[in-house]
Design brief:
The protein has about 180 residues and is of the alpha+beta class. Strands 1, 2, 4, 5 and 6 form a 5-stranded antiparallel β-sheet that branches. Strands 3-7-8 form a 3-stranded antiparallel β-sheet, with no helix packed on it. About 10% of the residues are buried. About 5% of the residues have low confidence.
Length: about 180
């Protein structure tokens, strides 16, 4: 954002008057800049980006992205967290690595702080951030779920017998099986 103070007059101004006008203009710009920097922080999340990594029912993972909008140059840290895991955690069946209390949130652009995390299938989470002055809490709004795929055969097929079935699967979904 830029602001220009222009001094124009039909009459000649004294040097002292010009200095006063420039001084007032500078004070106005400093006040405006200070009010923008002192904005109230906010936090939001983009939830449930499926990672397609379940190795068995119930252990799949999702990626969530949590974003804090605040003044630039702040140091936001995780103060408390439940149900969120490090984005670098190995896929299932390995257990994910919990987010550490005290972890610093990366400022990805001026005033924008981003934390990429994993969550487990059918779970919720809560996290509280702190900048040394105030807490900023957020909770999951959704529960992300992998579909439950159960194939139940015909009731007329005897035990120890087999029957062949055919599935028509679109080509773009073959890699997700």
């Amino acid at each position: 954002m830029s602001l220009n103070c222009t001094i124009s007059s039909r009459k000649a101004m004294s040097a002292n008057t010009s200095r006063v006008v420039i001084y007032l203009c500078m004070l106005f710009m400093i006040a405006l800049n200070t009010s923008l920097i002192g904005q109230t922080p906010s936090v939001s999340a983009t939830e449930c980006n499926c990672l397609n990594n379940a190795s068995m029912p119930g252990n799949g993972q999702f990626e969530d992205v949590i974003t804090i909008l605040s003044a630039p140059g702040k140091t936001w840290r995780v103060r408390n967290v439940v149900g969120l895991f490090n984005i670098a955690s190995a896929p299932p069946p390995a257990m994910p690595i919990p987010i550490a209390v005290g972890q610093i949130i990366t400022e990805t652009s001026p005033g924008v702080y981003t934390l990429r995390v994993k969550r487990r299938d059918n779970t919720s989470w809560t996290i509280v951030f702190n900048d040394g002055l105030q807490d900023l809490p957020i909770n999951a709004l959704r529960r992300c779920r992998y579909p439950s795929n159960t194939i139940i055969g015909d009731k007329g097929v005897c035990v120890a017998k087999s029957r062949t079935y055919q599935l028509d699967i679109p080509a773009n979904l073959i890699n997700n099986i």
